[in-house]
Amino acid sequence: MSSAISISNLQKTYANGHQALRGVDLEVQERDFFALLGPNGAGKSTIIGIISTLVRPSAGNVAVYGRDVATHVYETKLEFGVVPQEVNFNPFEKVADIVMTQAGYYGLPRGLARERTEKYLRKLGLWDKRDVRSRTLSGGMKRRLMIARALIHEPRLLILDEPTAGVDIELRRSMWEFLQEINNNGTTIILTTHYLEEAEHLCRNIAIIDQGRIIENCSMKSLLNKLDSQTLVCDLRHEMSSEDFARHALPGFRFVDSHTLEVDLGRDHDVNEVFALLNQADIHVKGMRSKSNRLEQLFLSRLKNSTV
Amino acid sequence: MLNSHKYIAFETILIKEVRRFMRIWVQTLVPPAITIGLYFLIFGNLIGNRIGSMSGFSYMDFIVPGLIMMAVIQNAYANVVSSFFSQKFQRSIEELLVSPVPNYIILAGFVAGGVVRGLAVGVIVVLMSFVFTDLTIHHWGITIFVVLMTAVVFSLAGFLNALFANSFDDISIIPTFVLTPLIYLGGVFYSVDLLPESGRMVSAVNPLFYMVNTFRYGILGASDANIYTSLLMLVVFVFVLGAACLMLLRRGTGLRH
Prior knowledge:
With 308 residues, chain A is of the alpha/beta class. Chain A has helices spanning 44-51, 73-79, 95-105, 110-123, 139-151, 169-184, 196-202, 220-225, 242-248, 271-280, 294-307; strands spanning 3-13, 19-29, 33-37, 59-64, 67-68, 80-83, 157-161, 188-192, 205-210, 213-219, 229-236, 253-257, 260-266, 285-290. Chain B contains 11 helices and 2 strands; from the N terminus they run H-H-H-E-E-H-H-H-H-H-H-H-H.
């Protein structure tokens, strides 16, 4: 399988002296669903800006499907679509006009442009809004409009910079389904997001960037396997006092309140062991959940290590 | 990018530009019509009757070409500078910058938009002038060439202004402090024969003086400026400004970080 994106020694220092990227090397395979995570100001949007030619690199190269974006400007631009972090369409234009105009920029004949506009606006639930001015759309609709616009020339690579920011849960789920569908149909997707659950749910491979450097780059599975421990929260069926809890002397458990206990589960231990201890103490648990998102724990620990 | 794709991209930008100024016609087409109408009424009709003839023509006939040019210049410039800067400000220009449209097509699209608006307002002024005078064209070729090239020159100038502009103040400084004085001092309302020697020397370095007078030659057959110098100047301006815009686009000035 060939590379959709190949980035080598990418550096960017802005005019104000801020060093946004300090030598980034990254490879994204064709058909991958790739997450690029990092805190605010880590350099994610700068990487996307350089790929899309809105930002000029200070050093290094970016190749899209084997072609350098700096020397093969027109060929590479046909290969990708970008959904930026901030809404960047004319608020006074109609929804369908925005998508049709983008089709024109890619040289699509009017008939085909109309056909594709209808196809993507329908897929993203915006067909009924095609004749309204874009400023009247809700935040979630604006995000979906930017996705439709980015897909109009049916690129092989779709780059999404925090596409679900400010989108409600229901809409977010439907966007996930849509992105999974186009990924299954062969489109490579690179996603930056603040919702780590989103990255864990959608992406096969991941890179974590901090202070302009890649500090982790591996598959999602291998990253999650690195998790040393996770905290499980047990919701108790019957009320329990702190004295009762102390009497049971459950190893690894913590008393949170009269209806909640927490337990740290190491990588080498099974959940069965937790249940065995609870059964032994005749404590009934009506539900159990992970205290925080697993990826979130890893993300924070990697950032902590990187800062140290 | 295939030539057919480039043509579609050019057409798309042009349609978008025309749609924009037609959508806000109350702001783009009506105000110049009212302003120029008042010039015709007050300067041409009321005061002009007392002024008598200018360069052998009635004052109304004398100012008509200048007022048409003034409308074309101001509107071609305003269309490009406001449209391109607004797109920069809203960041919708990124739609275009991430697409494979070559820089010269981007420039051609915006300039064509400016030319269409300039000429549209020019046509409105011509139609209004029929209320006050019988307009006959002395030299069709020169008239069309000059009005077209002038619209291109000022569309390019507007594009240049928009590239450098960082705020809405930046797009009003040049029209207010440079363009308007140059137009008014470019012989729209008077013949340079009325000026003292020093005034004529100042007019000689004002490019608007040549454009207005050559256009007046096309319509009336009389000009204070040398026609061939003016035509050459227009061609040089188009090439110089066009090259400057393309160079800045290639560098990404005001657009790419």
